[in-house]
Amino acid sequence: MTILEAENLGISFGGLRAVDGVSFAVAAGEVFSIIGPNGAGKTTLFNLVTGIYRAGRNGRIRIAGEDVTSLGPHLLVRRGMARTFQNLQIFFRMTALENVMVGCHLSEKTSFLADLFGWPTVARQNRATRERALALMERLGLAQYARAEAGSLPYGVLKRLEIARALATEPKVLLLDEPAAGCNAVETEVLDRLIADIAKSGVAVVLIEHDMKLVMKISDRVLVLTHGRRLAEGAPAVVRNDAGVISAYLGDAGATEANRAHG
Ligand SMILES: Nc1ncnc2c1ncn2[C@@H]1O[C@H](COP(=O)(O)OP(=O)(O)O)[C@@H](O)[C@H]1O
Ligand SMILES: [Mg+2]
């Protein structure tokens, strides 16, 4: 079942067409990766999909068939869209557990008044929230850090903590912007299994990633962007052997090399 449909998305910054008429669709349980050189428009595409930027006049975004084009980020979270950021967006002065609880709260339906007056339902819900957040941290191998101040934790742990907070909103689609950046080989291996596990649970995963080994291993399909446009899309093996993709990454000399290797 198709969960996320992005249709004809585009945006300009001044004279620069950062994303230009890009469309893609991702199904439940699928890992869909977006790759491309620095400045290709990958993060900007995420910002369009997640409502941080408005999709252009002809742009459309649907979640499970429902048009959500004009919704802002906080409403999209309630429709089942969650993301992580290329530059971490963690509350460093809060504990790791509290960071995940924030995610839980985003999908809960306490009223503002109930919160204000501290009604008993709120206390009960807070306990439940805490337990849900802890269970999630356990699943992601983060339980040992629950009480630690987020600011004191290593980078690789924080990358996973951000994923935990995103999962706490119980998303249908999860967008990850370079989750392995700055992670060592062991941390990347852990991420690899984690992402596969998330997809297996039925979430549509959209992944921006520079680590080609990781991308080629875990993606069902790959979209290649250059200069804001789609250069290629397909299974990892197909994209890897695409002459246009090779030349975009390695220059024309690389394409010639590749052709020779195939010839
Ligand atoms: N808010 C912005 N204002 C102006 N230019 C931007 C902004 N965000 C991104 N850009 C430009 O748009 C292009 C795409 O950027 P980005 O989406 O961050 O690329 P990627 O994530 O693929 O590295 C780059 O040329 C970048 O400098
Ligand atoms: Mg980026």
Structure description:
With 263 residues, the chain is α/β, with parallel strands linked by helices. It folds into two domains: 1-80 and 171-263, Rossmann fold; 90-169, no CATH class. Helix content is 43%, strand content 23%. It contains ten helices and ten strands. The protein has helices spanning 42-49, 73-78, 96-106, 112-117, 120-139, 155-167, 185-200, 212-218, 236-240, 243-262; strands at residues 2-13, 16-27, 31-35, 60-63, 66-67, 81-83, 173-177, 204-208, 221-226, 229-234. A six-stranded mixed β-sheet has the order 6-7-8-3-9-10, sandwiched between helices. It has a four-stranded antiparallel β-sheet with strand order 2-1-4-5. A hairpin with a 2-residue loop joins strand 1 (2-13) and strand 2 (16-27). Helix 3 crosses helix 5 (120-139) and helix 3 (96-106) packs parallel to helix 6. The mean pLDDT is 90. The structure holds adenosine-5'-diphosphate (ADP) and magnesium ion. Residues 13, 16, 18, 36, 38-44 line the site of adenosine-5'-diphosphate.
Which regions contain 5 or more consecutive residues with pLDDT less than 50? none
Oligomer: single chain
Number of self-contained structural domains? 2
Question: Tally of extended strands?
Answer: 10
Helix content bin: 40-55%
Which outline best applies?
globular
- What would you give as the CATH superfamily of the largest domain? P-loop containing nucleotide triphosphate hydrolases
Q: Major β-sheet, in short? A: 6 strands, mixed
Percent strand: 15-25%
Output the CATH topology of the largest domain. Answer: Rossmann fold
- How confident overall, as mean pLDDT? 90
The CATH architecture of the largest domain can be named as 3-Layer(aba) Sandwich
Report how far the terminal alpha carbons are from each other. 39 Å
Return the string of H and E elements.
EEEHEEHEHHHHEHEHEEHH
